[in-house]
Amino acid sequence: MVAAVAACTDSGGSAGGSRGADSATRPASRPPTPIPGVTDAAFALGVASGDPLPDGVILWTRLAPKPTAGGGLPAGDVSVEWQVATDAGFRTVVASGRQTARATLAHSVHVDARGLAPGREYFYRFRAGTALSPTGRTRTAPAADASPNRLRLALVSCQDLQQGYWPAYSAIAADGLDLVLHVGDYIYESDPKSRFPDRRHTTPATPGLGQLQTLDDYRDRYGQYKSDPALQAAHHASAWVLAWDDHEVENNYAGLTDEDGDTGARHQDPAAFARQRAHAYQAYYEHQPIRATLVPGSPNMRIYRRFGYGDLLTLNVMDTRQYRTPQPGRRPNDIGPSALGEDNTAGTMAGAAQEAWLRDGLRSSRTRWNAIAQQTMMAQLHLQAVVNGRSVGSVAANLDQNDGYGPYRTRLLTAVRDSGATNPVVLSGDIHCAWINDLRVDFDRPETPVIGTEFVCTSISSGFLLINDDFVRRNNERLNPHVRYYRGDKRGYTRIEVTPDQWRADQRIAQTIDRRDAPVTTDQSWVIEAGRTGVHRA
Ligand code: FE
Ligand code: CA
């Protein structure tokens, strides 16, 4: 535990220390001295902020002039200055400090900037020598005893770079939201193959495995993804809260069991996979504005955590990968008999400790809305072949989703129902198409009460997984009556506005992902009224 480096303590941060002190437009009082090899290009990955609290936020950058080729900085640590101001021109600097960008952490920087005022907008930037970063905008959370009148956020997931461009992120940047909530698949681990010449993945040290393995593999892949201008614009515009799913490490992994896939990936022994997971988690930490404690070399990192927005919203962010038991049946393509999931009595997606953490948090919550962000679809989704109008064969389900862990889901939804937490909402991704679902403890008994609503965002760019749209629609009508909205053919995001009286979700869709500048529009809007379960068209 000695090597915990999440919030380096050498920052010497001074919140409020230089308030209104000068009108300098450079981040420090001392005249800057150039650092050999460090130019403005060192900030090629932009900046980011995340995990907002009422008094602070994590500020992130990574010095990497060659982001897809090892970073490109000279060896050795680099001292980086940071500033937080109330205006984009940095006339009123309210916090500043200095932090070491360590070579052992790919010259990434995580500043835990504290002493800020609750519920307000800030601007931040970094400087290394004479090199100046772009400016990011962020927002602290409202005070615990505040009564905010609204919160606006985007729910996003699944951005396979090889499958297209990210107009959704340009739209999110333009929305100017309080928060972007990413529930996983920020990178994909697959080998280079794309119909867009400028979207081909970086080549890992050992191609042909269909997965990344080394720390450099993962770093270069993040470097590639984070070079995208639309993604950077979305980071520069809002604070983010992120949680990983499987592809940040390897498709469909579960705990320390890796994929036995059909893409060339082979089962590794748990020790080998633990090393791979340690590399993946470290690279994740190095590239995200997350408040977490990284222990280099460890395959474990706790990222499940909770955020409060005054008396308006509690946001529980879950990690359903690191602690989960293997999918029942271990089908390489996820799909298997739904009975395997219903009978998975020993299974869990969260692990006992996280399950207890969620239960306790729901029980003690006093906020109007209570959101649970997790990775894969919570609601039951049954699929069955239809031939000549008749159902054929057994009922199938995606066993990597909550459907693979039936008793765990029943436990979780029972806990939600019995907790007393008002207006529960589940936020999910992973399936690359958009859904709004009524949640019931037992989905096979549609006569029982709806206990909450689930919003599943479509992907930013990852391809639609299910066989075809018509097939899904027919199955929803026959087998999944709790599905209220479904759209499979478009990429985009779910834009959410939370007020004391209403939860509103705009289903945002990009016309195409073949172009960076494709228009993004609202397909439909759905609303929950506070105090009344169930969702309806706006
Ligand atoms: Fe995905
Ligand atoms: Ca996934």
Shape: globular
Question: What is the arithmetic mean of pLDDT?
Answer: 92
Query: What is the third-level CATH name, the topology of the largest domain?
Result: Purple Acid Phosphatase, chain A, domain 2
CATH superfamily of the largest domain: Alkaline phosphatase D (PhoD)
Q: Unreliable stretches, pLDDT < 50, 5 or more residues?
A: 1-25
DSSP, total strands: 26
Strand content: 25-35%
Q: Specify the number of helices.
A: 8
Which structural class is indicated by helix and strand composition?
alpha+beta
Largest sheet: 7 strands, mixed
Into how many domains do the coordinates divide?
2
Q: What's the CATH first level of the largest domain?
A: Alpha Beta
Q: Cofactors and ligands present?
A: fe (iii) ion, calcium ion
Q: How much helix, percentage-wise, in residues?
A: 10-25%
Description:
The structure is a single chain. With 538 residues, this protein is an alpha+beta fold. It folds into two domains: 100 residues, Purple acid phosphatase-like, N-terminal (Immunoglobulin-like, Sandwich), CATH 2.60.40.380; 387 residues, Purple Acid Phosphatase, chain A, domain 2 (4-Layer Sandwich), CATH 3.60.21.70. It is built from eight helices and 26 strands. Strands 12-11-10-23-24-25-26 form a seven-stranded mixed β-sheet. β10, α1 and β11 form a beta-alpha-beta unit. α1 packs parallel to α3 and α6 packs parallel to α7. The longest helix has 18 residues. The radius of gyration is 23 Å and the shape is globular. The N terminus is likely disordered. Calcium ion binds next to loops.
